[in-house]
Every structure is written in structure tokens, then in C-alpha cells.
Amino acid sequence: EGNTQHWQALGRRHHLPPFSDYKALNAKGSRIITRAEGVYLWDSAGNRILDGMAGLWCVNVGYGREELVQAAARQMRELPYYNLFFQTAHPPVLELAEAIAEIAPAGMTHVFFTGSGSESNDTVLRMVRHYWAVKGQPQKQVIIGRWNGYHGSTVAGASLGGMKAMHGQGGLPIPGIEHIDQPYWYGEGGDEDPEAFGVRMAEQLEQKILQVGVEKVAAFIAEPIQGAGGVIIPPDSYWPKIHEILARYDILFIADEVICGFGRTGEWFGSDYYGSAPDLMPIAKGLTSGYVPMGGVIVRDEVAAVLNEGGEFFHGFTYSGHPVAAAVALENLRILKREGIIDRVRTHTAPYLQRRWRELADHPLVGEARGLGMLGALELVKDKRTRTRFSGIELGMRCREHCLDNGLVMRAVGDTLIISPPLVISEAQIDELVSKARLCLDLTAGEVE
Ligand code: PLP
């Protein structure tokens, strides 16, 4: 504490941070986070901040878990690193693969490990194309994603995703990627009945498959609930219609579980919540609760069987299945099970969060307060009836700044504010989150009236 200016000066001089507005940052200086415990962060000025985002949707078991520290230290002493290339393995990665197979949806008992969510999506892109080549259909190359979906920041991840600002920097997407619209009823559904809108958005998948040509389509990729796009929860009609279309055509389904995986919806995976049967599931984040970097792809047995016939898959990373990360992930899964965290989310924490969160809908700025499991979003509008946004001011960012100044992390996606707190948050802490959010909405409203 007390070194804030020193750290900020180092940042200005030497650091190029990810996803940051460099001009704004250099003018203001970054907020320096120095430690964390439970659901709270502390900054270098000594302020305590309730982390309503669990870092980047990842610290599922909360901060300060000594068991995870011990698991990492034990593994570092025993075998700090070895690779898995050229037919080698080590116990932690094998035990982790077994532990994941036990919790994954039925028939998905194989795992390919990576170092992050983005690498997991690079992996699915290469894996599905390799799969079709092994099956004698190398022309099946096209992957269909969704506008405003987020699948990471590498070239493949950003291409599969549908963030137009990212596509605009660097000539993305790469060839062979197509996008359909998102099922964002509040923002794009207008007067249409939400369920009819959900069906119509799902039918775009069929139209796109037919337009591209079934013989060329390799896979469809989607997040069960779009996270970074603004916690977009599809209408109930959406996933059943998508499942129906997927069943009609011979293409693979990739459910990006990087956010929804490991309990966020009150089930192990978002696909469990929606009753989906994906062929591939990219995972990361909650796999280790963010304590160390790790990702992976959970693979359906039929797909793994084809890969097993295909000889060498020329793909992998130095840190694929890193032993220290694997040991931490194993212990993290044990904590989730031992403490019954996901069951408690489903039966207690999520219902309580959702009830309290929806109370914010009565605020003059809030057009919609929605959520599912341990995810929530607030749509800030000027006119609730017409859902008109404020123009000329970045309201979401303002509100986000008020939150930080008042000890709460919420994230702004345009004028949508979102939360994704640690799964272990208590009812009293949820009360604190909601009352701080209301205070900051009031402060923001005071500036625009
Ligand atoms: N997929 C989804 C759904 C994500 O939300 C993210 C990150 O937010 C990623 C992939 C990329 O993960 P990473 O940042 O670990 O590369």
C-alpha cells in the first residue's frame, strides 16, 4: 500500500496490458490490485472491493484457497514440468482427464489439454477439420459461429467469435468461418414475442448450413449463454430448435463452456443445464478457478474414436496439460465436490441472487434485469418502454467507474452491466452487491437527469 504512483509509473513506462484503452489508461493510471481473499479484492490504496466478476468469470471457488497453493507446491517439488509430446504422460494429467470424464456429459470421456480458452478454440478448429479429413470428407471445413459471440483473442478464437471491433483490427475472420445472428431478444427482438424470436434466430443456422452447402460445413460453435457479449440468455425456444437442426445435418456441435463450465449455471456445464449433447466442449477458467492458466477440449467418444484412427494430430502446446496446472485443477474439482458448491448454487445461491438482482428492474435507468445461475445483466436505457439508449455518453462505463469507486466490480458491455461473482458468495455478500449496484445506478442517474 502507498506505492500506487510508483506502480502506475512502471505501467506507463513498460507495460502494454490486454484489452485496455491505452490513451485513457495513460491519462488516469491503472488500478493496482494487490491481494484477495474470499470474494474480496484489495487495491494499493487499501480499498476493499467486492469482485462481482470473479476475476474474468473464473475464480469459482473464491480467492485465498490454501488447498490450491499446497497442490501447486507439492507438484512443483515432485515434477514441476514435463511435456506430453511424442507419446509421454505424467500422473496429474491422467488423473485430471479421468476426473473430468466423470463430471462431463454422458459419452464425453476424452480430453485434450491446452493453456487457455483461446488455445482451446484454436484446438477445436483444427480438430474438427482433422476429424473430417480422417473420415474422408476433407471438404468439410466451414465452421459457423455467432455475431457477438466470444471465443478468445487468438486469430482462430477471434475469427470464430463475432466481435466486430476485433475483426476490424487485423483483417479477421480467417477464411472458412461464417456467422449467424445472436438470440439477443432485449436488444434486437423489438416487439416480437421472445419465443418466436428464439425460433427465428435458431432457424438462421439451418439457412446458413444450406447457403454454405451441407457438404462443406464442419461444425457450429456457440456459448450456452453468451458471456462477454453481455450475458445473453437465449429464449427457452432457442436451444431445442438448434438441437433439432443439428440432428438433421451431419455437422459437429461445439459448446464453448469456458464461462458456463464448472458450476456457473448450477450444473457442471451449461450443456447440462440446457440438455445439449455437444461433440466438443472447450473449457478453461473455472477448471482451475483461475489460480493457474489451463484449458482443454472435452471430446465425445465417437469423435475421439475417429481421431484415434487418424495417426498423428500435428497440434499441441508446450504447456498442454502442465503438471502444476493439472494438480491445481484436480484439487479445484475436489473442492467443488467436497463442499457441494454447485448443488448449493443450484438450490440456494443462484435463486437468492436472481431474486435480489431482479429487484433492480424498478430503477429508472434499468430496462431489464436478467440472469441465470450465477450470471446477471442490467440493460441501461433512457426510455424503458421503447428501450431507447442514451446517446453521446458512455453510461455503462460511467456506472462501472462508480462501482469501482464504491467497492464493487461490475463489467460494462456498452450500456449493459454484467456480473459473474464467485460461486461461494454468501447471501449477505449478495445483499452488499445489490445495494452497491443500486447506489451506483443512483449516482449514474444523477449525472444524466
Ligand atoms: N471462450 C469464452 C466463452 C470466453 O468467455 C473466453 C474468455 O473470456 C474465451 C473463450 C477465451 O479464453 P482465454 O481468455 O483463456 O483465452
TrEMBL record:
<dbReference type="InterPro" id="IPR015421">
    <property type="entry name" value="PyrdxlP-dep_Trfase_major"/>
</dbReference>
<dbReference type="InterPro" id="IPR015422">
    <property type="entry name" value="PyrdxlP-dep_Trfase_small"/>
</dbReference>
<dbReference type="GO" id="GO:0008483">
    <property type="term" value="F:transaminase activity"/>
</dbReference>
<dbReference type="InterPro" id="IPR049704">
    <property type="entry name" value="Aminotrans_3_PPA_site"/>
</dbReference>
<protein>
    <submittedName>
        <fullName>Aspartate aminotransferase family protein</fullName>
    </submittedName>
</protein>
<keyword id="KW-0808">Transferase</keyword>
<keyword id="KW-0663">Pyridoxal phosphate</keyword>
<comment type="similarity">
    <text>Belongs to the class-III pyridoxal-phosphate-dependent aminotransferase family.</text>
</comment>
<dbReference type="Pfam" id="PF00202">
    <property type="entry name" value="Aminotran_3"/>
</dbReference>
<dbReference type="InterPro" id="IPR015424">
    <property type="entry name" value="PyrdxlP-dep_Trfase"/>
</dbReference>
<keyword id="KW-0032">Aminotransferase</keyword>
<dbReference type="InterPro" id="IPR005814">
    <property type="entry name" value="Aminotrans_3"/>
</dbReference>
